[in-house]
Specification:
Blueprint lengths: L4 H12 L6 E6 L2 E6 H11 L5 H12 L20 E6 L2 E3 L2 E2 L8 E5 L8 E8 L9 E8 L6 E5 L14 E6 L6 E4 L6 E9 L4 E12 L5 E12 L3
Parallel strand pairs: 5-7
Antiparallel strand pairs: 1-2, 3-4, 3-14, 6-7, 7-8, 8-10, 9-12, 10-11, 11-13, 12-13, 13-14
Helix pairs in contact: 2-3
Length: 237
């Protein structure tokens, strides 16, 4: 295993100069570096006074370098300023849109057309993580609501028709993009959802609110529960 010694010492230096109870990570190539600060400081203090323990301390550092640490993302605050943020919990796990691939679409895309007959609002959120061991590593959320004319509550209880695009009914979906083929789960009459619009500013092009839903596979009983959803975005017409 080839290790970047400079990167190791960088990690050590960061940890010795920080006493917060947190993890700090760095990475090089296919190896990650992650140590828990209080444990590292205790070991270092002990090893410094013992020539016998110092090799054990160094070995522990090197062993720890082989595992990359992916902290759970924190949900953004439910703001109303057009901060271009969003997030939710998926089956109890924090889920925040992010895309590690620079050549794909942005992780947050919102559209609203207040001049159209159906006043449709759509929100597409995507999550593509570097942690490919996560069951949520390549997933997406889609929200579609019709007749959105002012702040208020909008029920997502119609049969999903994603192929209708601009005239699609009010529904939500959660999609597992990987492994291929993708697996889509939808809201509907038996599994409704809800969007609450808290700000709709057609001058600043800002729409904010919250959402929650339970979606089900069309041909099985498998479901996914999305809770504590929030968004504060700039929309396109």
């Amino acid at each position: 295993m080839q290790l970047n010694i400079a990167a190791i010492w960088l990690c050590i230096d960061i940890r010795f100069n920080s006493f917060e109870d947190k993890y700090v990570t760095s990475s090089h190539g296919s190896y990650g570096f992650c140590f828990h600060i209080p444990n590292l400081l205790t070991m270092a203090a002990t090893a410094r006074h013992s020539r016998f323990l110092l090799p054990i301390f160094i070995t522990t550092l090197l062993v720890g370098c082989g595992k990359e640490y992916f902290p759970e993302p924190q949900l953004p605050a439910a703001t109303q300023t057009g901060a271009q943020t969003a997030g939710c919990k998926v089956n109890g796990t924090n889920w925040v849109p992010v895309n590690v691939d620079l050549f794909t679409s942005p992780p947050i895309v919102a559209h609203y057309n207040g001049d159209s007959e159906n006043h449709q609002f759509t929100l597409d959120l995507s999550y593509s993580s570097a942690d490919k061991d996560s069951p949520l590593y390549d997933t997406s959320v889609h929200l579609s609501a019709l007749d959105v004319r002012a702040p208020g509550s909008y029920v997502l209880d119609q049969v999903a028709r994603p192929e209708l695009a601009n005239t699609a009914p009010s529904y939500a979906s959660f999609v597992y993009e990987a492994p291929s083929p993708s697996n889509s789960l939808f809201t509907g009459p038996q599994h409704p959802g809800q969007i609450v619009i808290t700000r709709l500013d057609t001058v600043a092009h800002v729409i904010s609110g919250t959402f929650e839903f339970t979606a089900q596979e069309r041909y099985s009983s498998a479901t996914v529960q999305v809770t504590e959803g929030r968004f504060d975005v700039k929309y396109k017409e």
